[in-house]
Amino acid sequence: MSGFGTRAVHAGSGHDAQTGAVIPAISLSTTFAQSAPSVPIGKYEYSRSDNPNRDGFETVVASLENAKYALGFASGSAAIAVILHTLTLGDHVVSVSDVYGGTHRYFTKVANHSGINVSFSGDLEKELPTLLNEKTKLVWIETPSNPTLSLTDISKIKSIIVDYQAKHPTQKISLVVDNTFLSPYIQTPLDHGADIVMHSVTKYLNGHSDVVMGVAATNDDAIAERLRFFQNAIGAIPSPFDSWLAHRGLKTLHLRVRQASNNANAIAKYLAASDKVLKVNYPGLENHPQRGIFLKQHNHGLGGGMISFRIKGGKEAASKFTSSTKIFTLAESLGGVESLLEVPSIMTHGGIPVAEREANGIFDDLIRLSCGIEDEEDLIADIKQALEAATN
Ligand SMILES: Cc1ncc(COP(=O)(O)O)c(C=O)c1O
User: Where is the signal peptide (predicted)?
Assistant: First the structure.
């Protein structure tokens, strides 16, 4: 198999046979000609079911995630919804508690309408054996978690599921990993035992903050068939243009993620040494409490582009810091070429009750950074001046 960068550039991206174009055209046609009823001339029939641009995008994601199949969706949220739609009335899901707020919202305010029950756990490795029951169909992990960047050992969770299934051989439980925060350049969950890996493509995979899109990938034929059926039946699919843009973004994934991660590593070290900072959460730091999982699960020794830290001076200092940066833009989202920052307690995680949020380490003084691919010295200078402005 070729290296990651070669696959990112070439997978799903052959030359156009007719024109020789090196980059695929955007295929806007909604329908495709047939030579006889139900005998399409080529591979495609109707663009909701399949489309050349979505196909190219799905092919490269499958290659990068070491998967047989990948399926594109209109957003990361649509990918989550379709995965949950494959369950039926009375089914049970176990999820880590500090999942993305929108995933938590989907579990507790949408999936419950279809009779799906979700149990949350702050310590899945310890509690999963007691949370699994005869109705459990999915276990949902985000690693690193958002925004506190704690890690979950994917293969350990898988082994708990395998042990349970040995005693309940007719019950199939799928392990889903949301890999949005790292991208397949750093972590390939299917290699560690996950059954489905999903992404908000909106973040690192597209990487330029100009597409909202999602994807799910798997090696399991039955899961892929069921997801493909629901993808078409529900119709929450990405447009050809978004698929084309996201495919273009993927060609530089390895370069972007490496640079963002190197920047984040330098910034995390700078913050950890600062007397204006209470605590730094970054998987790449040697004193991260789950160093062993980092060493086992993260490729290339990279911690990713996301950091969170608690600033001294409470929520006033957090607010002042986020209004004082000149390169980091105060905005939600992450994973783009440009650096962003936010205060989770009042932005992305504002909907979670205070006690629950603080139990998960999301205090009012916590700031989340999405490090972009700008120059390291400029980003550190920006953090330095904002820390001074916020704490003086
Ligand atoms: C970890 C994670 N998963 C899923 C989503 C949902 O993706 P989207 O915004 O593309 O619907 C997000 C969005 O922020 C996210 O951060």
Answer: none
